[in-house]
Design goal:
By secondary structure, the protein is an alpha/beta fold.
């Protein structure tokens, strides 16, 4: 049934665009400006696509955007779904299944996050090299469909080592000096973390924390996609930050980061050759 739902969405999308994407991009809160760099843009609202949900979170446009950057054909999620909104993990990751069946081979997943590593500062961008799933849930729970992937997928390289090196090289070529690397922890939300929870996540090895990305990462690996994760540090986590958190603060800093992130991702995609 789930496979049929995915293919229904794929078939519908193919009636709306003839573009055949090679690369998928998931854009986090306040980071949707990347689509402005895409040429030959075509928009499909999530509300029109069978099986897609709708997010009510500020900073998410709720649409798929098809287009090209350089010679690379791209499909971008301008807005994502979160477990804390009440969606099931299958609903959260449904678009990744659809993008895979549309033909993508690689995916870039971005987010806005809180910094746990005290050497980080708001405005930094972190290449994700591993994750901690503290959600107590997993999008692959339930019957497995071998048409998608194996029952027990490997996660020893959840984020492609080749793409990590590539991202570091391109950042250096652009002269970006606010690039970090580290482990991203998934927190269920929607409340921000307590100081005690942040101390626990630090002991587990986390450098940053957020409420997304890991479900899409798990499913991407399951589907055989190569994953590059980029977390944008919009605030320092509870107990490290001296001020209280707000989503408005997150969006404001994400907007500040957006220009550099878009420049970096655009440059990477223009040189994408995998």
């Amino acid at each position: 049934m789930f496979y049929d739902d995915v293919m229904t969405a794929v078939d519908f999308i193919k009636t709306k665009t003839g573009q055949k994407p090679e690369l998928g991009v998931v854009l986090g809160s306040g980071l949707g400006a990347l689509v402005d760099f895409m040429e030959n843009r075509e928009y499909i609202p999530y509300s029109e696509i069978p099986g897609f949900s709708l997010s009510e979170i500020k900073g998410h446009e709720d649409r798929l955007v098809f287009g090209t950057i350089g010679k690379t054909s791209v499909v971008a999620m301008q807005g994502r779904f979160h477990f804390y909104e009440g969606f099931s993990m299958k609903q959260v990751t449904f678009p990744v299944f659809v993008m895979k069946m549309l033909g993508i081979k690689d995916i870039i997943i971005t987010n806005a996050c809180g910094g746990i590593n005290e050497s980080f500062r708001p405005g930094d961008m972190m290449i994700i090299d591993d994750y901690v799933n503290s959600l107590g849930n997993n999008p692959l729970i339930g019957p497995n469909d071998d048409r998608f992937g194996p029952r027990f997928p490997d996660m020893s390289e959840a984020y492609s080592k080749q793409l990590i090196v590539f991202a570091e090289e391109k950042a250096k070529e652009l002269g970006l000096d606010n690039i970090q690397k580290g482990v991203y922890a998934l927190f269920p939300g929607p409340c921000y973390e307590t100081a005690a929870e942040i101390r626990a996540l630090r002991v587990m090895g986390a450098d940053a924390v957020g409420m997304s990305t890991v479900p899409e990462t798990i499913v991407s690996n399951y589907l055989g996609l190569n994953v590059l994760g980029i977390a944008c540090v919009t605030n320092m986590a509870t107990g490290i930050s001296k001020t209280k958190h707000s989503h408005e603060e997150v969006l404001a800093v994400a907007d500040m980061i957006s220009e550099k992130l878009c420049k970096w991702v655009k440059y990477m995609v223009e040189n994408w050759n995998f």
